[in-house]
Amino acid sequence: MKLTPHFTLAELTHSQTAARLGIDNTPAPEMVDALRKTAELLERVRALLGKPILVSSGYRSPLVNRAVGGAASSAHMLGCAADFSCPGFGSPLEICRAIASSDISFDQLIHEYRAWAHIAWAPLPRRQVLTIDKAGTRAGLE
What we know:
The chain has one domain: Muramoyl-pentapeptide Carboxypeptidase, domain 2. The chain is an alpha+beta fold. It starts with 8 loop residues before the first helix and ends with a strand.
């Protein structure tokens, strides 16, 4: 099912961890609207970057979220977040800097482990910008 011109429900629910562990990662039907909003956010990011983006994690069932070591309150479990990269544009840090300096509305933007960008939306977006790595979590982009 296409959620937007460039993103499908299958893409935003695929999980290598779920497949490997035999965990059902199918979202409840009411989550599809949240995933559509996530896809719309990713469309804005794609337009900003001018290149296709590769989603590595979207929706996570609570079991999948635990299996990957996700935060107990992860927006991924609500269908409101995605982890992604855009090799054609640049590094995850360059991606995060471009989004942070744009007018794209987001709740959280996280440069994670220098390996990917995380973006989440919420009805009342905080526009929180963070970096997470082995040293911990801190405000700003590094």
